[in-house]
Design a protein that fits this description.
Shape: globular
Cofactor: Mg(2+)
Distance between the termini: 52 Å
Pfam families: Prenyltransf
Function: Catalyzes the condensation of isopentenyl diphosphate (IPP) with allylic pyrophosphates generating different type of terpenoids.
Number of strands: 6
Strand order of the largest sheet: 3-4-2-1-5-6
Active site: 37, 86 (proton acceptor)
Radius of gyration: 20 Å
Binding site for Mg(2+): 37, 227
Largest sheet: 6 strands, parallel
Structural class: alpha/beta
Strand content: 5-15%
């Protein structure tokens, strides 16, 4: 390691400790959503032709992130791992990415882990073997005492809302509720009760890496009052200091919820 690298790392460590001290007693988001973007560009930036290396490097960062969230007191973390749009990627890349996602799910549910793992998305668009792995880790971690970790796989925000409305209509049809009565009684909360994240707090903070500044359909309903933090860092290079910066920005904002 060169002298410049050692000096830079030492300065980063000092800055990180300063950020951590500044956050003592600050407002902490209950629910953090993360759009883990930039894996492919990271791989290409270091001369790798196989972008699966970028996905694997990004996957190895997830346990670190969840540990930082635990330290901060975050209750729910939603990880945007695979969108419905991503399913159109070339088959070799998609197959490798699905395998990586399965490996991540198994790792997060492994011995000694405390997180409750939940999958969210349209399972019917995923391969049966991926669905089976996600269901298994859900069952294995259902009663664990730690934070809830949502794995958004085969996820689309518009599709989630459509699925919620479909589920709501089916529920009332089974009860024999007339359409007129449903129209009269329908409230926002009734739809929220059928979302993939039902029973969880809405997202307070969304972090997106890689410099992109868009939501890509992520948690469209749950982020109505969320704060957003965009960073130029590619996901595989995301560090604790980057996470603490996001928390600092969140704590400095005055959330009025329209008031």
């Amino acid at each position: 390691m060169g002298v410049r690298r050692r000096v830079r790392d030492a300065l980063t460590h000092v800055y990180e400790r300063r950020l951590a001290r500044a956050l003592v007693g600050a407002d902490v988001p209950r629910h953090v959503g993360v759009i883990m973007d930039g894996n492919r560009r990271w791989a290409r930036s270091i001369g790798l032709e196989d972008v699966a290396h970028g996905h694997r490097r990004g996957a190895s960062k997830i346990v670190d992130l969840l540990g930082w969230c635990d330290d901060a007191g975050v209750q729910v973390v939603t990880l945007f791992m695979l969108s419905t749009d991503n399913l159109r990627r070339p088959e070799p890349e998609l197959s490798a990415l699905l395998t990586i996602i399965e490996d991540v799910a198994v790792d997060l549910a492994g011995p000694g882990r405390r997180w409750k793992i939940r999958s969210m998305g349209a399972s019917e668009v995923l391969p049966p073997e991926t669905v089976a792995v996600l269901k298994q880790v859900e069952e294995e971690t259902r009663d664990r005492p730690g934070a809830t970790v949502n794995l958004a796989v085969g996820y689309g925000g518009r599709r989630e809302i459509a699925d919620a409305v479909r589920s709501l209509l089916a529920e009332h049809a089974a009860r024999g509720t007339s359409l007129d009565d449903l129209v009269e009684a329908l409230e926002v909360e009734h739809i929220a009760e059928h979302l993939y994240t039902r029973g969880q707090p809405d997202c307070d903070l969304v972090i997106r890496t890689s410099g992109e500044q868009r939501m890509s359909g992520f948690l469209l309903w749950q982020t109505a009052n969320a704060e957003f933090h965009f960073t130029d860092v590619y996901w595989p290079d995301f560090r604790r200091v980057d996470f603490l910066r996001a928390l600092r920005d969140y704590s400095a904002r005055h959330r009025r919820f329209g008031g």
